[in-house]
Write a structure and sequence with these properties.
single chain; 295 residues; TSP-1 type 1 repeat; two-stranded antiparallel sheet; 0% helix; elongated
């Protein structure tokens, strides 16, 4: 195949008032010579060959085919498999699921009143190779009635000890629990299992510890100072009393005269400001101190 052409020329040219010529002067198209022309044909498969021979049950058989006719340039190509394979037998046989027989019914679950009997069964053989699955109950129950039960009255435990009272807990509590519930129309359980009542809290006075031992004298002659301290063991609460008191004391010591002729007297600093109250509400205490400036 190839291309062929045709052309045309302008016979009369336009003047200044005429329309110009429009269009191509040369055209081409695909052309096949009659000596080269062929009939259009599609691809064609040949017949399948026989399956190959199986040498054992686990082997695979194969068959093949070939192309008998190739397509022309514009023909439809072949589409599909050239070879196929299959198992040499049908595979293992399917087996459905199978239930075992039901177990005997159990004895009644109750010794009196209403109860139940039960029985169960299991799967004796599961399904294999796409066999049917088991479908059905594996546990059954039915009611049973025994002699009437005796009445059982409710029994509650003893009350616990009342909880402690303090400034943070103005209520105290106690509780009990059900040891044996009522049954078969017996006496019902009490409705009260937890009780509370207000606390009676007495005002508490503050308490100071005993004085500690005196410290060693800070001078050997000419007068000195020794100290002792105590602490507040318990602040007052709930409106209790706390009298002003001293937490640190000083006493003179080493009063004999020194060999030096200079006579110096002990001199205290001014008292510090009172501290903040030790309690945020109610009664508390404040402290202040001073120090020895010169002996």
């Amino acid at each position: 195949s190839g291309l062929r052409f045709r052309r045309r020329d302008i016979e009369t040219r336009n003047n200044e008032c005429g329309e110009p010529c429009l269009g191509a002067r040369i055209e081409s198209e695909r052309h096949v010579l009659s000596s080269c022309a062929q009939e259009e044909r599609d691809c064609a498969w040949g017949a399948w060959a026989e399956w190959t021979h199986c040498t054992n049950p686990y082997d695979q058989a194969v068959r093949r085919r070939s192309i008998e006719q190739t397509p022309s340039a514009r023909g439809t190509p072949c589409s599909g498999r050239v070879s196929e394979t299959k198992a040499c037998n049908d595979g293992p046989a399917t087996a459905p699921c199978r239930f075992a027989a039901w177990d005997p019914w159990t004895s009644c679950s109750a010794t009196c009143g209403q109860g139940r009997h039960t029985r169960a069964r299991r799967i004796a053989a599961p399904s294999r190779h796409s066999g049917a699955a088991c479908d059905g109950a594996v546990f059954e129950a039915k009611p049973c009635t025994m002699k009437a039960c005796d009445k059982v009255g409710c029994r509650a435990s003893s009350w616990t000890v009342w909880s402690a009272c303090d400034q943070s807990h103005p209520q105290r509590f106690r509780s009990r629990h059900i040891e044996v519930p009522a049954a078969n129309g017996g006496v019902a359980c009490p409705t009260s299992l937890r009780e509370t009542k207000g606390c009676t809290i007495h005002p508490g006075d503050c308490k100071l510890s005993e004085w500690g031992s005196w410290s060693a004298c800070d001078g050997s002659c000419g007068g000195g100072q020794r100290f002792r301290e105590r602490i507040m063991q318990r602040p007052n609460d709930m409106g209790g009393h706390c009298a002003p008191g001293v937490l640190r004391e000083a006493a003179a010591c080493s009063s004999r005269e020194c060999e030096s002729t200079a006579q110096d007297e002990c001199d205290f600093s001014d008292w510090t400001s009172w501290s903040n109250c030790s309690a945020r509400c109610g009664a508390g205490s404040r402290t202040r101190g001073r120090r020895v400036l010169a002996l």
